[in-house]
Batch of 2 targets.
Target 1
Amino acid sequence: MTAMATNLVQLKLEREFDTMDTDNDGYLDWSDYQQLIDRYTSVFQAGKDDPRSGQVQAYFQMYWMELIRHAQPSTERLTKEQFVQANRLAIIDTSRLNMVEAGAHVTFDCMDADGDNEISKNEYETFLRKVMKVSQPDAIEAFHKLDLDGDGAISRQEFIRATREYFYSNDPDAAGSLFFGHV
């Protein structure tokens, strides 16, 4: 096993940190997550009365609190190292919230703007480009890997499987490892 494969989850989390650190100050704080929430609700047109808006808000508040609980920072912000370590601890600690499963469902529900219980290529591209601010061409190619049955859409089961692979798999070719493009 190569060093990259051994540390692939770390590399994925570090890239997530870099994407989330919108002001490039080397820290994540609640304002970074609030900006993410705002992008979700704006991009997928989930108004204040839309249940998806409340679900996204509630999930990311719980997720943030779990990161803070596991990182135990001296302030309400996280360095990249703290973020990676807190995520590694939070994804295995399901005593309060199963972050991986909950996040997959909330993200899927928000992305599924037309409510057909599947993610189209357009919905996935919108998520990557406008919510996660990923512009890598290979990230779009990941859609076809996530669509395991080749029907032209990502089902909830395929999305949840990919989310699990993103957080747990050190296989660089696993569909979930390609969620946001090649690492």
Note: Residues 71 and 144 are 35 Å apart (CA to CA).
Target 2
Amino acid sequence: MPDVDRERAWLLTVDGAPQSYVDLDDPEHLEFEYVRRLAHVLDCAADPGVPLDLLHLGGGALTLPRYAAATRPGSRQRVVEFDGALLDLVAAHLPLPAGADVALHAADARSWLEQAPAATADVLFADVFGGSRVPAALTSVEYAHEAARVLRPGGLYAANLADGAPFGFLRAQLAGFRAHFAELALLAEPSVLRGRRFGNVVLLASDAGLPTAALARRCAGDAFPARVVEGPALARLIGDARPVADVDAVPSPRPPDGAFSLG
């Protein structure tokens, strides 16, 4: 069950693992490093302040939608969150700021995506975990096709994933998205990329160029710096990995004990 600690900053946990952090007084304060990386993607998606059409698969406490409303006012946002009780909790205790154009949908992310109109999102964020694992329905090449269909030409896809060496899951994800997107990149801490620990990795995809130079500068300045992996280095990581079809799809690996705990 979700737990929420309240002052003016809220930490929401699910089954003892940190899920979302919200500062009601400062929506631009992002506590978790992977959320900062997703925000960097948003910052680099267009010129500063330009409103965008954003689709969020996975809502949590709506940390990223709040950030987008503050930094890109006028953006139209849709949030798809399977846990309707969580959405009710957030609406009751963490209301969105006045004027934020955020539509909330209590629905299964894959089913909702398949019904969404084509070419309607400038950026699609995927941060969907069932417990501590990405559901199988969001790991297949067919899912990658649906993500590409909903994005506008030049749009960006950014997903929060989690894996560790030897990166079988991550490599298959990259192979699946390579089948539908011309450009791919990863954002991750060096310790994760070197296989020293299990951790979050942000997968980026687009049918046009990715803003990797700007992202590299932003990620390098974080408290826990991340690297951008693209081009030949990314191709070596993918290696001979093949896309995974729906029929064979499985959830992301179960993290080691304590990997995402509050410690």
Note: Residues 1-6 have pLDDT under 50 and may be disordered.
